Amino acid sequence: MSEVKAYGAADSEADLKQMSIERREVKPRDVKIKITYCGVCHSDIHTVRNDWGNSMYPAVPGHEIIGEVLEVGSEVTDFKVGQTVGVGCMVDSCRECEPCKHDLEQFCEKGMVGTYNGKDKHLGGHTFGGYSEEIIVDHYYVLSVPENLDTKAVAPLLCAGITTFSPLNHWKVGKGDKVGVIGLGGLGHMGIKFAHAMGAHVVMITTSPEKAEDAKRLGADEVLISKDEDAMKKHRGSFDFLLNTVPVAHDINPYLQLLKIDSTMCMVGAIEPLPDVHGGNLIMGRKNVAGSLIGGIKETQEMLDFCGEHDVVSDIELIDINTINEAYERVVNGDVKYRFVIDMESLRNAN
Ligand SMILES: [Zn+2]
Ligand SMILES: [Zn+2]
């Protein structure tokens, strides 16, 4: 085992501060990674503050990890020292159940092992994430990063990216489709970029008119203000697919009315009870409401390769780790365009 510097919270009330954590020795199938950048996801904050009631402490979050391979185990042939790699939301799964066998490890029947706050099979206790100098991960859960991309802006692709890419890919969004992206935050801004790169006609759907200009810069062809009833009426029954990234409970009925017959709205933001859905909004037009969670390892690699081909990265604000607590406040207030990424040199240089 080795000790590395990390940043984490001692309990649900505490700020994040520097601490020391243990990493396992490199096993035959492992890749040891020097972390260079780590994105800040809203889930990090939920975990640190125990919003979901299942947090283990100390909590060291971070599941949008970019780094450089320092060492590979004796059986690893798919990665080499010095290569730029990524690690997303999971570092293990059972590999035997039906979902695992079908490249859907995120739905592993035995439960995927989260990059943080998961059950550590090697050292016991729980897993520690990317707010740290180094991480050791089984090669199967390590992703290769296309060389032409700006690596710090790739970090958020590992969670925000795959969360939005996977449903657009699964429902085969492409040329000729009219796609609505609801909500413009960390997820929504990636949804616009992907849908645009896939060739769809993209409509940003938001409550905030002031977001229109930015939405167009990101690739939206149109902006629909959801509070404008006339505008909503004009778009009624016209969408082939809706990607709903709103992170909190909200009334989805007005959006269902926007869908064409047989079309789907996929939820990726709000993991909580939603207000009543009127059955008529589903029955009239044979409409679907669906959900989606990140993506499997194979699809995450496909997403990164797609980003390499289409030059898609996240819009980020790079921060030093000692400003992480302020950054959390800003994420909670929706005051970031569109993802914070921690420069991990700032942790290595800390005393
Ligand atoms: Zn995340
Ligand atoms: Zn499994």
TrEMBL record:
Keywords: Metal-binding, Oxidoreductase, Zinc. InterPro entries: ADH-like_C, ADH-like_N, ADH_Zn_CS, CAD-like, D-isomer_DH_CS1, ER, GroES-like_sf, NAD(P)-bd_dom_sf. Residues 14-290 form the Enoyl reductase (ER) domain. It comes from the Bacteria. Gene3D superfamilies: Medium-chain alcohol dehydrogenases, catalytic domain, NAD(P)-binding Rossmann-like Domain. The keyword Lipoprotein does not apply. The keyword Hydrolase does not apply. GO terms for molecular function: alcohol dehydrogenase (NADP+) activity; zinc ion binding. Pfam families: ADH_N, ADH_zinc_N. Its cofactor is Zn(2+). Signal peptide: none annotated. Belongs to the zinc-containing alcohol dehydrogenase family. This is Hydroxyacid dehydrogenase. The lineage of its organism: Bacteria, Pseudomonadati, Bacteroidota, Flavobacteriia, Flavobacteriales.
